[in-house]
Each structure stands twice: as C-alpha cells, then as structure tokens.
Amino acid sequence: MAQAPPDGVQRTALGVAMLRARESRRADRLFDDPYAQAFVDAAADSPGPAPKAGADAAAPGPAAALSAAFYARVVIRTRFFDTYLTAAASGGCSQVVLLAAGLDARAFRLAWPPGTRVFEVDLPGLLAFKDAVLAARGAASQCERTTVPADLRADWPVALAEAGFDPARPAAWLAEGLLIYLTAEDAGRLLAGVTELSAPGSQLSFEHSPVATAALMDRARQMPSLHRYASLWQGGLGEDAPRWLADHGWQPRFHELAALAAGYDRPVPVQARGGFLTALRAQP
Q: pLDDT tens across 137-152, in order?
C-alpha cells in the first residue's frame, strides 16, 4: 500500500488529481490522464485523509459555483500547460522542470520529443507516494524522468543540479498551481532561482489571475467546504508578476483563460477569470 503524502500537500495534490480524473471520463475531454484516478484510489486506501468527491458540485449554491470555477480553471490550465510544455520541448528546451510537480503525470501521458528529460521537483513524501502508485500500475514514462526530492522554500537548485540539470542548456519551467501558496517574498526567491538557472532561450509559465484569485480566495475562505484549501493560499507575486519577469530578463506574455476556453470550445463559469503567463528568457 502506498503511504499518503502529508495532509496539506495531499489535499491539494489529490484535489487536482480528482478533477483531472473527472475530466478524463468525459467524452469531450480536453486531455486524458489515465493515472489521476489511481492516485485518488490509492489515497483512499491509505491511512491519511483523502478529499471527498462531488459534494460541492452536486449541491446548488455558492459552493457549487466556486467548485465549478475551480474545475474549469484546473481543466483549462492542464490543457494549456500540456501544449506549452510539448511545444517548448519541440522548440529546443530538452530539459523540462516541473516545480511542485505533485501528482502530475505528464512524463507518462504526453508525447515528448526524443531526448527530452523531465525533472519533477517536490517533497520527498509526495514523490514516494506518486512513484509507488505508478509502479503498481506498471506505468512507463515517455521520456527520461528524474525525481528531485526537495523543499522549494529551501536550497532546491542544489538538489536539481545534483540530479543532472544543466544550466547551460535551455529549459522549460512550469510552476503549475504553486505560486499562490507562497508569499510574495518566497515566490520572488523561487523565481530568482529559476532565473539564475535559465540559459537564454529558456521558457517559464505559471498562472496569473490576481483579481480573480483574490475574489475566489475571499469567498472560499468563508465556506467550510473550501476553507481547508483556501487557508493555504498566500497570493504569490499577485499583479506584480509580469513586471517582475520583465525586470529580471524575461519577456512575458499573458494568455487569457476565457479566450483559451473558447478556442477549446469549452464554456467556463464567469468566476473562472484570469489566465496564464509564459515568458522567454532573453540574453542577459
């Protein structure tokens, strides 16, 4: 039996896995994650607590509306980041770094160009849980996959380098669903580490929805069913993220969630606003 990861991390990672599993069951799914349900099932069988499925989505009212907005955001961002990563890898970023990789199964479910190496950085307990579940399923990665057990609030660049990351080669970085759980100071420190390790031509992406996120945070904290998630949120860089990137040698570009959803032919609730930033590392 796989041992569940620590409670706070577990709730967040499994909550996302649950939504990815739900999307994967749809006939009109925007992606297929064949491992998401396995993570949820393994956590349900473990000693640690697992999130409960479907309660908010089934009941009418404000909690259901917020749950629908979270679902839409996770689904759209998963599809968008899938495309971003594979395009970056095809464009010359043979190193891919997933910061706070969680229960992301992209190393196993995406078609990577030959020679791609994916580094998954996260807490040791979560990676151990993930690897145990994947091994039980006989999952085979579609690239060279390297796990990097590390705390992103500590000296993770050293651990990444020791795992074989080469800062002289361009890399594609992803901080999916991460920065909101960090203070502005910690988020800036994390991105400074990314910048220092990024050769010209490297790419970076993360969510950018300061106004929408603030509104969702305020509402979610008032709802018992969502408070346990919202209590972990710190806000990250907020509206200063594009300026931070530009000031540190990146060329940022904003991608609006609603426009992406329209392109995917997927309606989203009005609460699902904001979008995502991508950035290209320029010559220093």
A: 999 999 999 999 999 9
Global pTM?
0.88
pLDDT tens track for 19-47:
999 999 999 999 999 999 999 999 887 54
d(C-alpha 164, C-alpha 142), whole Å: 18
Distance from C-alpha of 53 to C-alpha of 14, rounded to nearest angstrom: 10
Q: State both tokens at 253.
A: 């570009």
Interatomic CA distance for residues 213 and 54, integer angstroms: 22
- 228-251 as b/e: b if 16+ CB within 10 A: bbbeebebbbbeebbebbeebebe
Instruction: Decide yes or no: CATH 3.40.50.150 for domain 73-281.
Output: yes
Measure the CA–CA gap between 104 and 223, rounded to whole angstroms: 27
Classify residue 208 as exposed, middle or buried by CB count within 10 Å of its CB (0-12, 13-18, 19+).
Answer: buried
- For residue 238, the 8-state DSSP code is G
Angle made by CA atoms 176, 73, 23, in degrees to the nearest 5 = 100
Do 258 and 273 contact (CB within 8 A), yes or no? yes
Instruction: Show me where the domains of the chain are located.
Output: 73-281
